[in-house]
Every structure is written in C-alpha cells, then in structure tokens.
Amino acid sequence: MTDTATAAGLDPATLADVLRLAGSTGFDRIQEQIRRTGGCTDPIHLMGSTVTRDAATGQVLHSYSTDTEPGGRLRLACGNRRASRCPACAWTYAGDTYHLIRAGLVGDPDKGTPHTIRDHPRVFATLTAPSFGPVHNRPGNRPCRCGTHHTEDAQELGTPLDPDTYDYAGAVLWNNHASELWRYFTIYLRREIAKRAGLTQKAAREASRVSFGKVAEYQKRGAVHFHAVIRFDGPDGPDDPPPAWATLDLLTDAIHAAAARAEVDVPAAGELPARTLRWGTQLDVRPIRAFGDGEEISEQAVASYVAKYATKAAETTGTVDRRIGNKEALILLGVPDHPRRLIEACLDLHALYPDRKLRDWAHMLGFRGHFSTKSRSYSTTLGALRQTRADYRAAQQRAALGLPDPDDTEATTLTLAHWTYAGHGHTPGESWLATTIRRDIQLNRETAREELPALLDLEGAAT
After folding, report:
1. Is the pLDDT of residue 295 over 60?
2. Out of the domains of life, which is the source (predicted)?
3. Which of 9, 31, 381, 408 gets the highest tally of CB atoms within 10 A of its CB?
4. Highest mean pLDDT among 345-349, 368-372, 452-456
5. Closest to 103 (Cα-Cα) out of 217, 229, 216, 292
6. What does the alpha-carbon distance between residue 193 and residue 247 come to, in Å, rounded to a whole number?
7. Taking all residues of the chain, what is their mean pLDDT, rounded to a whole number?
8. Residues 15, 2: Cα–Cα separation, whole Å
C-alpha cells in the first residue's frame, strides 16, 4: 500500500496519514466502513448504540456500539446529489433517477407503473430560456458570429460576444423565476389539451391525466433549461389507458401552445423596468419510441440523459458549488468572467428583489428550484427507492446476524437505538483511501457493464 501511495504522488502530510492508517489496529475496519459508503467523499460520523431484544422474554438478541469502532465512530454516506461534492453518492442518486424515469417509460409493477405504459403517448420536451444577448456558439458548419469556427471544448463557447451589452440582470431573473414559469406551463398545458379535445377543463381532467418527470440543466451561457418526459394517462393514472382522443399529435401541439402562453411578470425595481419572462423559441418536442429506430429517441436514451444531468448543477458553467458571501470571494475562487458577472448580478439585484433570495442562490446563478421533479403519478419516488435499498440491506444484516424477520408474526422484536452526530469528513489519508476505493468500484462497474452483452450472447447460444 505504501508503494501505491508513493507512486500516486501524495503530499507529505497525506502520505504520513496513509502510513498511520496502514499501521493502525483498526485499519481493516476503517477500510470496510469506507467501502460500505461507496467511497463517499464526506461521510457523516455517528456515535451511539443499538440493542435488539425479544419483546416477549427480554432476551438480548443483538447489540452494537460504536465503542468497538476505530475512533468510536460509524461512517455513513453523505447522500449529496452533486457530482462535484461527492461522486460516489451522486452515482447512487443518478441511478435512482434513472430507475424513476425508466419506470415511467417502460413500466415496472414494483415501482407503481404497468408495462402497458409503453402504449401511452409520451414525448421528450426541452424548454429553453430566451436570448439575453449573442454568445459564442457552433452553428452547424457555419462560423460563429465572431468569425471563428470554435472547437467543441472551446472555453469561449456560451460567453457573450459583448459582455458590456449582455442582459445579465435578465438572465439571472429568468433563472430565478424558471420554476414558476414551468408551473404556469403545466397549468396551460392542461387547458390547451382540453381545448384541442373539444372538452371543458373539468371533462378533460375526468377523462385523462398528464404525468411528467423533468430535470434542470445549465446551458454553457449559464441559463437553465428543462428536459421533461410528458405522458398521457387515463383518469386513474398509469394503470389506465388514455382516451382515444389523447394522441401524440394532440399532446405535441398542446405543449407548443402552452409554452407560448406561459409567462411570469417581474415588477420594476430601482432603475430596472418591469419585464415579462417567457420561454425561448428553441422548443424541442420529440416522441419517445419503445425501441430506438435510429431516428427517434428511445426510452433507454431518455432515462440515461435525465439521470446524467440530475447530479450536475451550475458548477458546469464555471461557478462554484457553494454559497458566496461577497464579490471579493469570486476573485479568490478564480471564477471565470461570465459566471462571475452573473453572480455579481445576483448580489446586486438582491436589494431590489429581497423576496427572491438572489444572494442566497447567487452560486446557482439565481436558480432556486429543484433539479429533479415529477408529478405524483408519473412513477415511484426517490424516497421509495431509497427505502427499498435500505430494507434490502437491513434484511441482509438480519440474515447475517440470525435475527428474525420483522414481518414474521411469530417473532416479535424490539430495537432500541441512540445516535448522536459526531462530525463529518475524512482525514487526508482516509480521503486518499476513499478515492482509491471509489475508483475501484467504478472500474468494476464499467467492466461488468462491458461484459454483460457478451454474457447475454453466451446465454442465448447455450439455450
């Protein structure tokens, strides 16, 4: 292990801590704890104990205390969704989002949707922000307006051609109101559906239901846009087929009309005039096919795309992933010019619109909504997926300890637990160990994913 640490080019302090860990009596247990968190970057530390007794006899069936753990602490995964904060927990969050979105596309009875959901009209819609000024881009085979053919990884992509005339105030106000604009869009969508079906809004609601799952993503210019799976259901939800009039064409047409109608008014403040915020003209609505045909997007592609962006935030534009107290911090943090100006606009506008909490969300370029949301009946919930995973691990633990199943009516147990928060994070050596474990886990996953098609081919040949 020391050879590996030396080869990794560790600084002296980290190397010294790695050597301390490797020589400690609790090293194997520390390594096991970190592995159980998946290599979490910033684990939660708990101190406490649990006692499981037979409720009838009072006999102690199992007891556990962190007194036996290295340092007297138990490490738990932080659960942060941001890949910039914790890649390990973000991977779990992305996986949950993938299964949530996929369950609403292909069906999964265990997650609240039947397989017949594939027959329901559904689209993948992308709603974008309007223009706040020309930016460097890659318009097909043509050069950018600056006269340059930019490469895909060019740093200037998404930045204004003329920062001094760019509407930074409009950009951050739009981000700040984007969630409200989405809410108005969903309201108008139901109205437009009823209009096209020739029904009253009440009659349309009684005959059909619109379900969705969406994720927010930042464009290179720092403006939020939404990707959404929008699906027609019957009045009772995913188990109920939609009426005959609820067609793909009607849904697509209604989405375009609703996006054109949705707007949010922002009052004048200081020297800023009143403005009306609307969606941009680049609205993309594509049908989702049960199986990709090379032209339309498939269920697998949609679920993967949504999951990918569920763990990303404004830091993809060059900003930071935590709150900023003042403008001076932007210089110390080395924030690039364009996101710096957006953040400064948030800080300046906070006094004019204090109820919008622009200062608190300056690091998010004004956006204050949830990155991943869904309607109630779209499919399962992230909470339900987490609970299923927790129940599975608890069942494994009970089996390993020989404890009875709590669902067994003949066996009644009582568990008493006491936990206290004891801090978070890693020492430098533990951090290096967590990174190494996380990379090993990721490599194993990628290897398994690459080998799966070959294994399926072998299985098919054998049968």
Report:
1. no
2. Bacteria
3. 31
4. 345-349
5. 229
6. 10
7. 88
8. 8
Token code pair at residue 354: 């204090």
For the cut 70, the answer to whether the pLDDT of residue 313 exceeds it is yes
Longest dimension (CA), the chain: 83
Single pTM value for the model: 0.83
For 117, the token pair is: 């959901």
- Please, which residues bridge with residue 277 across strands? 264
Looking at this protein, which amino acid is placed at residue 460? G
- pLDDT band at residue 456 using 50, 70 and 90 as cut-offs: very low
Residue 288: is its pLDDT beyond 80?
A: yes
| d(C-alpha 292, C-alpha 285), whole Å | 16
Whose structure tokens read 């390993």?
A: 400
Which of 185, 78, 35 has the alpha carbon at shortest distance from 424? Answer: 78
Q: Which residue has the tokens 């559906």?
A: 193
CB-side neighbour CA atoms (13 Å) of 304: 5
- Of 460 and 161, which is predicted with more confidence? 161
Residue 10 has pLDDT above 90, yes or no: no
Structure tokens at 259: 């996006």
